[in-house]
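protien #1 (seq + structre)
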Amino acid sequence: MLLIRPDNDYPDGVPDETIRKTEAWVAEVKARGVHLTGGALYPPAQSTGVRRQGANVVTTDGPFAESKEQMGGFDLIECDTLAEAVEIAAGHPVTEAGMVEIRPIVEELSSLGQQAVADRAP
């Protein structure tokens, strides 16, 4: 998964040129057959956090992070190698003014468990 993290929060909206470049990048990656889905996210101020405290559900209005690093969107790609994912991510327009984080998706939740970590120890 590519996590799209622009440095700018675009208070006046994302510039049209950036939108056009991103649409062209998505079209190119789809044409390669590796783009599964993706989307832009509304700003953090429009987010809602959900926690459970016992039987009570508690919601909190965003934004939550103090950092400038906010996720602006995501793209789910399927690549054979990390090198291919890096090459695809490097073509994203946000890499010129932010970062695209490559994050592998866990195939089985059990691989995150404590026993799985212990099994990998030498």
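ok now protien #2
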Amino acid sequence: MTRNKLKEAAMRLFGEKGYEGTALSEIAKEVGVKTPAIYAFFENKEDLFMTVFREAMGSYNSYIQALSGEHKELSAKDSLYQILTRQYAFYQQSREASLIVLRYVIFPPAFLKETIEEAFLESDKLLTNVIEQLIKKGIEEGDIREQPIPLLADAFLNLMDGLSMQYFYYTSKEVYERKLNHAFAMYWSSASS
């Protein structure tokens, strides 16, 4: 119970204040324990941080893996659009996990850069595979013009990355959804037959 509360507080504080701006004493205080209690569960601040970062990335990876089984009945267009709307739903439902992943994938602490990059590349590989399979299906069904699959997948991943940044810039649901719909319409018009 205490371990989970420490992780929840750490995820929120690391996401809001950054690694350097978050003290272990602050995390302990929020949970209602003394700082030395943290060492019963984690070796040090880095261990606590990497635990919550990996869990946040793991929840995103679980989301990615769930996508591959859900798109058997949908068209490629609907499946790709649903990836964008599911990403949006993930950000809304898991704001703290989203914030910590986005913040540290873009601005990792120097001494954790390599470890964070490894976790990101694993996630990117899973997502790329899901998207490439959907694009391949779209080409086979005649919905997508014959083009190199990696080209279309990379463009879609860049669309997702851009929308990730947009999500944290715009607090208006209407503005964000308009941007999502416009970006997808442009992607689809260049990819479709």
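The mean pLDDT is 90.
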